[in-house]
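Q: A small favour: would you put together sequence and structure tokens for a protein?
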Amino acid sequence: MACPRWCRLLPALLLGLAMVAASPAWSQSPLRTVPLPGPAYPQVTAQGRIVYQPAQAVADRLILIMDRSIAPAAVNPLAAVPGARVRRALPRVGLTIVDLPPGTDLLQAAARFNQQPGVLLAVPDTLVYPQVIPNDPKYPQQYHLPLCRAPEGWEATTGSRSTVIAVIDSGVDLNHPDLAGKIWTNPNPGSDPRYPNDIHGWNFVENNNNVQPVPKVGEDNSIVSHGTLAAGLASPDHADQGLLQQWQRHRVCRGGGH
């Protein structure tokens, strides 16, 4: 799946935001915000209640990612909106923070700036909220989780060890290190005569108790690994093999199975 343009530019944008936030002059007065279209962001309070934060941005402000291959003197992005002015420039990372006339529609202004030569991307200065994300070092490689808005679900719950999950898929690698100690064991195998010796579940394809996937030499075995991946998303244990484990609250940017 190709990464969109804003995704490729995100590291520079995050760095610029961090530098801006670190400036004392920017925290002297409360920011005025305006709502943005899009879903509300679920947050969990210290009392365990779920509250929803609206999508918001700083009023009358945009962040521009500039093309550093073009000399600043050769472009005039402020021509996009009369009355706009540069609040701060961060040339080392190619960012320019622009103040707009009071009451400017942010999305319309961003669309105009995006048409200007030398501007790679113009976006509102959006507010971000803490999110629950796993401490798996391979989490950044799993692009599908933010895409399906999994962190929003994790804000509500990260599950419980007392909950038994039935994974209906291609089978599970019972020896996978991320699933060690998490595989359900039937306390009374064979209690249903239709499924004799069903220790960890049942293979309904081959009608036996072997729930481990069996790779076939020379064939596409992505279907074989899918069940293990699904089980890892549902109930992992260790955090070093690319499945998800412990949950920590971090500040991250948000974009708007079988």
The two ends are 19 Å apart (CA to CA). The first strand starts at residue 33 and ends at 35. The chain has a mean pLDDT of 76. Helices lie at 5-21, 106-113, 144-147, 150-156, 222-234.
